[in-house]
Amino acid sequence: MRTALVIGTGLIGTSAALALAARGVAVHLVDHDPGQARTAAALGAGTDEAPEGRVDLVIVAVPPAHVAATLAEAIRSDAGRAYIDVASVKGGPRRELEALGCDLTAYIGTHPMSGKERSGPLAATADLFEGRPWVLTPTRDTDTEVLNLALELVALCRAVPVVMDADAHDRAVALVSHTPQLVSSMVAARLEEADETAVRLCGQGIRDVTRIAASDPRMWIEILSANPGPVADVLAGIAADLDETVRALRSLESSDEQKRRGGAAGVEDVLRRGNAGRERVPGKHGAAPTAYEVVAVLISDQPGELARIFADAGRAGVNVEDVRIEHATGQQAGLVQLMVEPAAAPGLTASLRERGWAIRQ
Q1: What start and end residues bound the annotated signal peptide (predicted)?
Q2: Terminal alpha carbon distance of the chain
Q3: How far apart are CA 2 and CA 165, in angstroms?
């Protein structure tokens, strides 16, 4: 791949353009807002000048509702040798293209499973896709050269290719991406009218659950409008669980011992099923999840403190597998939770104590 045209310079389009430009591909940028394309070009994602002739790959990075029309226009104008889109739904756009009578041998639908709460070119980074799954949905009609160019794009972005059927992909993202967004927003919405004393008690749990609730509603309306059925199916299952859990909790209020036992069993059931589901989430590098030991260290909110604790962990010969920071409300301090292999935890704890760190159990 020597040339590419990116249509749509938001977070995903600009990030892909940055990755390609950094690896020597001549990238041309187009957006319905010329100012946004100029911003992406200024960031080093390519040029906002039109290409001279056909490019090797056209990447359509527009909202799902506009994918088919944008692709159809690009295909009819013979803009490139191959065409892909990066929308978060795949079945609908392909059916729309078929209805428009487009020749789809040069097209393949794709979806990089990566993103941020922020949108736009200023949020883009060349490493956004590194190590992340990038779904490809070829069909029997897809030309081999087109599939190879799509695979080259994934490789240049240092992502991991995953081949799926388009409709199976849409059902999968309804479960692992679209529904979590709605559930996160629903939980966060409870905070809008909450008493200030309750909000002051917010800890890491509520921060984890509501992190993605900060996402742009306009973007998510477009995504959810393109995949409403599968998302509604997942939410219906969650609603059934909620109904059962509400009944179980009401039973725990009863003065009847048998009802209380039944309520406790109902709550325990959903919690245990949650444990089982969580264990299926891939761990580090996509491998089976590992039960790490947590070494919690009190840390002051001062420049260089994080660097110092990581350096001290390195001096102890311990690899930190993951990290979480829990901020203390109203204080210039917090807890850094270092996730390490269980066998390494005692040695790391002792070493950090020797270096003056306050360890919390």
Answers
A1: 1-21
A2: 53
A3: 29
Residue 170: phi and psi, rounded to 5, are -65, -35
What range defines the domain where residue 123 resides?
3-164
| 11 and 47 belong to one structural domain | yes
pLDDT digit string (tens) for 74-119? Answer: 999 999 999 999 999 999 899 999 999 998 999 999 999 987 767 7
Pair 222, 250 in one domain: yes
Same domain, 9 and 132: yes
Instruction: Say if residues 4 and 55 touch (Cβ distance below 8 Å).
Output: yes
Same domain, 224 and 246: yes
146 is a domain residue:
yes
**In terms of C-beta distances under 8 Å and separation of at least 24 residues, what long-range contacts does 32-39 make, across chains too?**
36/9, 36/10, 36/120, 36/121, 37/9, 39/9, 39/121, 39/122
Total number of domains constituting the chain: 3
Residue pLDDT, tens place only, 312-340:
999 999 999 888 887 766 567 778 889 88
One domain, residues 104 and 120: yes
Name the pTM for this structure.
0.76
Residue 95 has which token pair?
A: 């059916």
Residues 6+ apart with CB under 8 A from 105: 141, 142, 143, 146
For the four alpha carbons of 98, 57, 159 and 41, in that order, the dihedral sign comes to negative
